Amino acid sequence: MGRAAAFILRRRGGKGWHWTDIVTWVWLIGGLFIMFGPALWLMFSSFKTPAALAEFPPSILPYTSQQVSVEGHDKPLTLYDVTLPDGTTKKLAEVRRIGLFSQMVDPAKPDETIRVNINSRKPVQELSFATENYTGPFVHFDFFRYLWNSVFVTVMATLITLIVNSMAAFALSKYEFRGRSVAMLIILATLMVPLSVIMVPLYSIISALGLFNNLWGVILPTVATPTGVFILRQYMLTIPDELIDAARMDKASEWQIYWRIVLPLTAPALAVLAIFSVVWRWNDFLWPLIVLSRKELYTLQVGLSIYSGELNVQWHFILAMTVVTMIPVVLVFIFLQRFITTGIAGTGLK
Amino acid sequence: MTAPLETASKPSAVQHLGAIALAPVRLVMGLIDRPLRALQRMTGLSGMAIFFLAPNMLIFGIFVLLPLFINFVYSTTGGSALFLPERSYVGADQYQRLFDCSNYLDPLTCQEDAFWTAVSNTFWFVVLQVTLMIGAALVTALILNRNLAARSFWRAVFFFPVLLSPVVVGLIWRWILQRQGLLNFILYPFGVDPYTWLTDRTWSFAAAVGVSLWAHMGFYALILLAGLQAIPKDLYEAADMDGTKPARVFWRITLPLLMPNLVVVIVLALIRSVQVFDEVYILTGGGPGTSTLFITQYIYETGFVSQPRNPGLAAAASILMGLVLVVLTLVQLGLGRRGEKKGKR
Q1: Membrane topology type, per the record (chain B) (predicted)?
Q2: What is the ipTM, given to two decimal places?
């Protein structure tokens, strides 16, 4: 321990501690708790039973009171640690509570009932994970449907984004043609058009196309992202034109040049865009909320928001569903975070 | 097919799987090639360029440009009908309704009091959130730029919430701020009675600011960190040799050289902040009362939720918000230009 502390507290060049060092470590450790704490708290909570969720002060880990079945009683009884008048403690099961007293039995001797003051008993707690929080939503909420809808939207939108944007980026980086700068300008100008500004007319267009209450109505407006065109175009500009000229010499068609030469060489940028797109589409909320009004079409985000907005929120299910909704993003965070951070740092786009 | 590249190692199982998964894509791409060759013969290279650009431009035109233009038309029509031909022309009535106030500083004297409440809420939200955001992001970036052990780990820590969906963010914090929640649990030993924070007007507004700060700070810190790392190290070494005080180094070297990034970050934060909606909507639903009602929620509810809905009014409000965003974007472009010129000099 001492050596570990010495290692952590060691300063470069053996210099003493400066106040900025203290600020640094307070900020970092504080950040660690504030950034991860809330999500971890949610995860621990999601394994608690509804009764444990209503407790205050709450426990960090999911505990439930232990139950025993006692001869002569139909229902399982709650087990308590009881301090008897003679000072000894015993594990007893509660039969019923009358006022300040409770009638208890020793599970070993089910015939004798003992009267105990309720202040001298404490429920026996055991660690137990309420996995029914996770299985319940599949039965009660058609959770599988939402999961499938989310996966469908995410995968389809990402595939189309990659194809459509890479084609456009190819045209804008490797061809000279009339209207190229106009096209670039249009894309640049609309980079800053947010959904909230065009919500109303976009909705009418989607309806006119018959895409209201249709997953494609969620997918299509999102796939021509200017960000994607930019990332890919910047990358394609670095591919030498000689490569393309050589391929033309060998009688390759333009389509073949696109998908056999340019696309494989753009793989790193495509990967970045794919990761971005998966996170964006998985997290989309407002637009799906507007387009999807039929229950069986909800994505996870919409379903979660609807059920958490009900008068009587079934928090034990909501928490578990939230954790499931977080899983893909957490996986991206653990394994692919590096791509995203370098992507953002390089382009300043999110 | 072309001959495979000579590689020392055998292709791995992953590569085999990848090849199998890509096989149908290859087939389709190959089949498309034939008609496309014919197209190429007919139209030449420039025709192919248009062909490559067309799908993107088509989707873009239908789902971004077209709505952008007909939004203006919508804002001059009335009624609750959805499709333009069924709507009646009312001229500037919707704008007049939005601006019909006897005292602009008091939202309750306006005909559309919800709109002005939303505007005022959004204004204070933007001021508070952007100020705190820039401060926190700058401190985080400066700290991450120090000589740290496991820097990429610490960078990831602050970046984590950025990836979470707004719905998840909203629910996480609703769960923490409820009566039996984590916040009350932490404050309990200090003698604070359990409190339902989100039913209090002031606290729920503070929560909206804090939660959006929590969710987005890492993003801005990351851009600033990239800016800090681009500052040449020899400047610091020179300052160190001259025995310059750290505070002076910060004001004279770090801050001026970080300025271009800082401007980008401030304007980006402003643009995002004006549009605040998702996580706050899940967190508070705009309440209690209208204490956390922001402009985007006003547009959404006017256009889609309220009965009868009023797409014209929503369109007018969204155009006003769009104007603010356009001004902010132009400011960013202008400042960016100036920054570039300075840099060249």
Answers
A1: Multi-pass membrane protein
A2: 0.83
